[in-house]
Amino acid sequence: MSLCLENLTIHKINGDPLFPALNITVPPGEIVTLMGPSGCGKSTLLDTIAGHLSAEFRYSGAITLHDIKLDSVPAHKREVGILFQDDLLFPHLSVWENLAFALPDSVKGAERQQRATQALNNINLTKLAYSYPEQISGGQRARIALTRMLLAEPKLALLDEPYSKLDKDLRVQFRTWVVEQLKQANIPTLMVTHDETDVAYGSRCLTWPWENSHA
Ligand code: ADP
Ligand code: MG
């Protein structure tokens, strides 16, 4: 039940590869960080895994999730959750509605509000259910955004510089909390960042250019 990247490279059409062939396996419950400078191809790599690679690029190699080759699976069927640094909540929806929005379609009617409210209970933010995103703090929004991502029950989490919009104290707290949530979800997580302070204590981290990254 892991994410496997085998000999994965990405290049602009008629251009050089963005990075040397990447080989990595991320088992469930583990967060692996790829660290590299701005422009080295981190977001493009996550786009590739999620199935949103822009038309200027091509990739080669294999992406496997839970023994299924993702290459031919359309983006909306990959069950991949992505969290960006400025993950925006819908401003016109309350917090619980934002969470309910992410629930799988199989959850119907009143159960949607129950499940959203339960998720808020779990993160001790029940009091925010009827607040709107602009009425809550940046740290609270960040927690709601991660919770929303996990409510969709993804099989893989991708984090793109998830802490860079938060101030320093908040970052440390939020980072610890994110690690706990992802471990509980027991899915593989790949994080990309340019900032070494984002790396969870004791977790695996590969530094650009990610060569010899057999793992
Ligand atoms: P990072 O996330 O590591 O900062 P990106 O993956 O965003 O890097 O970008 C990798 C390279 O691809 C950069 O040189 C960037 O300018 C270029 N790039 C990113 N997106 C596009 C695009 N849609 N079209 C063409 N070039 C792009
Ligand atoms: Mg980026």
How is the topology of this model organized?
Blueprint: E1 3-12, E2 22-26, E3 31-35, H1 42-50, E4 57-65, E5 68-69, E6 80-84, H2 95-102, H3 110-122, H4 138-151, E7 156-160, H5 168-185, E8 189-193, E9 204-207
Parallel strand pairs: 3-8, 3-9, 6-7, 7-8
Antiparallel strand pairs: 1-2, 1-4, 4-5
The structure holds adenosine-5'-diphosphate and magnesium ion (MG).
Explain this structure to me?
A hairpin with a 2-residue loop joins strand 4 and strand 5 (68-69). The chain has 215 residues and is α/β, with parallel strands linked by helices. It is 29% helix and 23% strand. Helix 2 (95-102) packs across helix 3, helix 2 runs parallel beside helix 4 and helix 4 packs parallel to helix 5. The strands form two sheets. Strands 6-7-8-3-9 form a five-stranded parallel β-sheet, sandwiched between helices. Strands 2-1-4-5 form a four-stranded antiparallel β-sheet, with helices on one face. The model has no long low-confidence stretch (mean pLDDT 94). The protein has two domains: 1-79 and 154-215, Rossmann fold (3-Layer(aba) Sandwich); 93-153, no CATH class. The chain binds adenosine-5'-diphosphate and magnesium ion. Residues 18, 36, 38-44, 54, 56 line the site of adenosine-5'-diphosphate.
The CATH H-level homologous superfamily of the largest domain: P-loop containing nucleotide triphosphate hydrolases
Taken together, the total number of domains comes to 2
Instruction: List low-pLDDT spans.
Output: none
Tally of separate helices: 5
Tally of strands: 9
CATH class category name of the largest domain: Alpha Beta
Largest sheet: 5 strands, parallel
So what's the overall shape?
globular
CATH architectural name of the largest domain: 3-Layer(aba) Sandwich
H/E series, N to C? Answer: EEEHEEEHHHEHEE
Separation of the first and last Cα atoms: 15 Å
